[in-house]
Each structure stands twice: as C-alpha cells, then as structure tokens.
Amino acid sequence: MSISKAYETTDKAILSHSPDLGRGGSTAVTAILINNQKLWVANVGDSRAVLSRGGEAVQMTTDHEPNTERGSIENRGGFVSNMPGDVARVNGQLAVSRAFGDKNLKTHLRSDPDIQYADINPNIELLILASDGLWKVMGNQEAVDIAKRVKDPQRAAKQLATEALNRDSKDDISCIVVRFKG
C-alpha cells in the first residue's frame, strides 16, 4: 500500500541524513481524506488520531509501546526494561516500539505503520491528530470535548495545545484539528 511505502521511504531518508540530523528519531501520525468520504490514518509510535463520532471519541491509531511489542523487539535482539517509576523502554532508552530514525536502535525497532480506515458520514464531526505531549495529559474524550467547543479548527488545535501546557505536559506538543461538514 502507498501509505506503508511512504513511511518506509521517510524512515530511509531520515536514516540516510543521520550525520546531519543526529541519532534521534520521531513518531508520526498521518491522515489522508479521499473525496471527503474515505479517511485513512496511519501512525508509528505514540502520536495518535482520534475521531469524534456523534460526540464520542474514537481512537483510530495504536500507541506502539515496548511492552505491547516486546516479542518483536526481543526477536530483533533488543530488550525491554521496566525500571520502577518509569515507562517501559527499548534497550533502556526509547519509550516507543516503532519510530522513524533512531539509528542506534534501528535493528530493534519497527517503522511500519498501523493503518486504519473510516467512512466519513454526517456523524463524524472532527479529527484530532496530535503527538504524545497532548495525550500524556489528556484523555481522548476530553480532547474531543475541548475541540468541539471551538468552531475554528486552527483555534481548536491551539486550545488543545494550551490546555496540555496548562496541565504541565513535559513532552512535545503538536496538534492539528480537522473539522468535517455534517
């Protein structure tokens, strides 16, 4: 599928530029809307897509956590550590099991996305695409409730980011809100 190929190409491009970019990596969430009727979402890592369907939050993506994909990591020669008071980490370093880049961990990580599909109908009100800096401090339904109160999607995204900061999010916060016409 084209989405999987795009993720593979992105990962290779990031890895090939690691001397310039450093050894770090990134999670990602993407959405493709076809003819305002068909929505495809994909992700690696813990960036997330959440739909509002009739006011109810519907998580469209899978958070790729090391404990969930421990078998894949160990089959690739890596390990998952669980230090008390911390989240599970690949080789004691990375808190996600799928990511772009991360050259020093690449042999243990996957970068293939999970892909989901939804039909857009009048019940679908909005879509939130956001990084873990939002989701670590806010539940899916809370985010939908906040975004629904603001008509302008750009202002809604800014409101979500501001709320995450107000809740002392310590991670990166990227957020896009897409509003559908019912």
From TrEMBL:
Residue span, PPM-type phosphatase domain: 1-180
CDD domains, sorted: PP2Cc
Superkingdom of origin: Eukaryota
InterPro entries (alphabetical): PP2C, PPM-type-like_dom_sf, PPM-type_phosphatase-like_dom
Ranges annotated as spanning the membrane: none
Short name of one Pfam family: PP2C
Coiled coil: none
Protein name: PPM-type phosphatase domain-containing protein
Taxonomic classification: Eukaryota, Viridiplantae, Streptophyta, Embryophyta, Tracheophyta
